[in-house]
Amino acid sequence: MCESNVVNMIKRVFSSIIKPMPLDEYPDYDTYWGKRRKQRKNSPMQRAKRIARLIEPNSTVLDIGCGDGTLIREICQYSEPQYIVGIDISLNEVEKLKKEGFEAYQINIISMVDPKNWTAC
């Protein structure tokens, strides 16, 4: 496959997966997380436990879209990562994680990455 075709394919795939969470019923991410926390069922925790058990000790972990930190907590419980950091669009969630002693940053990746600007190497 031609290099430019590969780059274009990657652009299309990347563009389709880095769209923000649909907020149809929520005005912003902080409201979304507040309501999600109240509606939370057991499945996100079960999923986090399964993922956490796959992380090898002494790994470096970046949790993109860490939200309320469910996965970060589970990884720390079931593995011994050398370094773990979370990033999320919600400043409120990031601040809560920092208060728990985790390293976390508020970053809007979507505004930082524009696949239209990608070029083949």
Characterization of this structure:
This protein is an alpha/beta fold and 121 residues long. It has one domain (3-117): Rossmann fold. Helix content is 48%, strand content 12%. It has six helices and three strands, in the order H-H-H-E-H-E-H-E-H. It has helices at residues 3-17, 29-39, 43-52, 70-78, 91-99, 109-112; strands spanning 60-64, 83-88, 103-106. It has a three-stranded parallel β-sheet with strand order 1-2-3, with helices on one face. Strand 2 (83-88), helix 5 and strand 3 (103-106) form a beta-alpha-beta unit. The longest helix has 15 residues, at 3-17. It starts with a helix and ends in a 9-residue tail after the last helix. The mean pLDDT is 75.
Concise summary:
With 121 residues, the chain is an alpha/beta fold.
